UniProtKB/TrEMBL annotation:
Stretch list, region Disordered: 1-38
InterPro entries assigned: CB (IPR044068), DNA_brk_join_enz (IPR011010), Integrase-like_cat_sf (IPR013762), Integrase_recombinase_N (IPR010998), SAM-like_dom (IPR025269), Tyrosine_recombinase_XerCD (IPR050090)
Polar residues bias locations: 1-11
Name the UniProt record assigns to this protein: Vng6112h
Species annotation: Halobacterium salinarum (strain ATCC 700922 / JCM 11081 / NRC-1) (Halobacterium halobium)
GO biological process, alphabetically ordered: chromosome segregation; DNA recombination
SUPFAM superfamilies xref list: DNA breaking-rejoining enzymes
Length: 413
């Protein structure tokens, strides 16, 4: 495997130039050199690299590089058709079980998502429906096997983001009066990012709102992400576009209110139409600010001067009311991956090595079903009681097991 960890990140970068950096990020221990996930991911990336070069697959498979080009596979060769073909290659291996095919593909998909965040790729091609279509059904997973944040995991993550946000906000608020303006801006940006992450985690952890109802879906213009105008912190409610294709009010329980209120005060959005969870992606914001100021009639040289006065494009966007887009559901997954790693949360799950967004919803479902039963849980989760009973049937099975144990003990005595 190529050990090159240069900073080049464009379409001409060979695929395996990214492998070591990715594996270090995912590895455990000092230097990221250990851990089962790293070892398994390394194996699957090597498998992908060999297939992409034409060294694996059917006899007539020559790889993803055009026949008239003599070079190693690079990122410019990747698109959703390549991942679709690779999914078909895995699915066609008769030596692999259905769930194993799914697992192997997930390693590659996780790497693809990381490449988007790191600037190697423009889009998460591996997660597109057409790319995943050849994969077999993962029919070995029962509803109770899906990830659900445990109480300990929820407390660890929320405590971590709360401490990070408190420290960042305090660092910004206590800066000396003579602090350099750009340093002050950097401190505010750090506080905003930490406060946004805290608010997002608390909302996912306690509201049970689907992540697709909360954030932007690039493929559905109706799902543009919640805006401040959709929130009523005094009433404890939030309007979201539900899965059933209509707007509805979702509850904001007490633990969520304070993080949102503090975050809003720090952001001070210029209008209520600003997204609650805007993207902090540097490239996206640079384009948005450039185009937005141009639309406002600013000359190119003036725009350049304005941008030079700001440490971050987001702060200029706030001051000039150039509204950025909300983060996407993929963006939320990336944030939770970063935070799960930083909080050093112990996660034992076959699909996710981090606390995934849907796990927050399922975790709340577990809490509600156990505390108040299926009817109340169904109302909070915006699902039918029948569906909730099906998805959380493992809880009822466990409770019935306890009843049976108690009955046997009584009879035996």
């Amino acid at each position: 495997m190529n050990q090159n960890t240069s900073s080049t990140r464009d379409g001409s970068t060979p695929l395996d130039d990214s492998f070591e950096r990715y594996l270090q990020d995912k590895g455990k221990g000092r230097g990221g050199d250990g851990g089962n996930y790293r070892r398994n991911a390394a194996r699957e990336l090597e498998r992908l690299a060999e297939w992409a070069a034409g060294d694996r697959g059917d006899d007539d498979w020559t790889g993803i590089v055009p026949d008239d080009v003599d070079r190693d596979p690079t990122f410019e060769d990747l698109d959703e058709r390549v991942f679709r073909e690779y999914a078909r290659h895995l699915a066609g291996d008769r030596g692999l079980k259905q769930n194993t095919v799914q697992t192997y593909y997930r390693y590659i998909s996780a790497w693809c998502g990381w490449c988007v965040n790191e600037g190697y790729l423009e889009a998460h091609y591996a997660q597109r429906a057409s790319a995943m279509a050849p994969l077999p059904e993962d029919d070995g997973r029962k509803p109770g096997d899906q990830q659900a944040w445990t109480s300990e995991q929820r407390h660890t993550l929320t405590r971590h983001v709360d401490e990070r946000a408190r420290d960042a906000v305090e660092a910004y608020a206590t800066l000396p009066a003579d602090t350099d303006p750009l340093d002050k801006q950097r401190a505010r940006y750090a506080a905003l990012k930490a406060a946004r992450d805290r608010a997002l985690v608390f909302v996912l952890a306690y509201t049970a709102v689907r992540v697709g109802e909360l954030l932007r879906d690039p493929n559905d213009p109706r799902r543009r992400g919640v805006r401040w105008e959709d929130l009523s912190l005094d009433d404890g409610s939030m309007d979201v576009y539900r899965k059933k294709q209509q707007w509805d009010a979702a509850s904001l329980p007490d633990p969520v209110i304070s993080p949102l209120r503090s975050y809003r005060q720090l952001m001070d959005p210029p209008t209520e139409r600003w997204p609650v969870f805007p993207t902090f992606d540097h490239r996206t914001l640079a384009t948005i600010v450039q185009d937005g100021l141009a639309d406002q009639g600013e000359r190119p040289d003036t725009i350049t001067e304005q941008r030079d006065e700001y440490a971050r494009n987001l702060l200029l966007a706030l001051d000039e009311d150039v509204r950025p887009p909300s983060i996407t559901t993929d963006g939320a997954r990336s944030i939770l991956q970063r935070l799960s790693d930083a909080a050093e949360i112990d996660i034992d799950h076959p699909k996710h090595d981090y606390l995934a967004p849907h796990g927050g919803r399922r975790g709340m479902g577990e809490v509600l079903v156990r505390a108040f039963g299926y009817t109340v849980a169904a109302r909070y989760l915006d699902n039918s009681e029948e569906m909730v009973r099906e998805r959380y049937s493992h809880i009822e099975a466990g409770e019935l097991g306890d009843v049976a144990t108690e009955a046997l003990e009584e009879i035996d005595q």
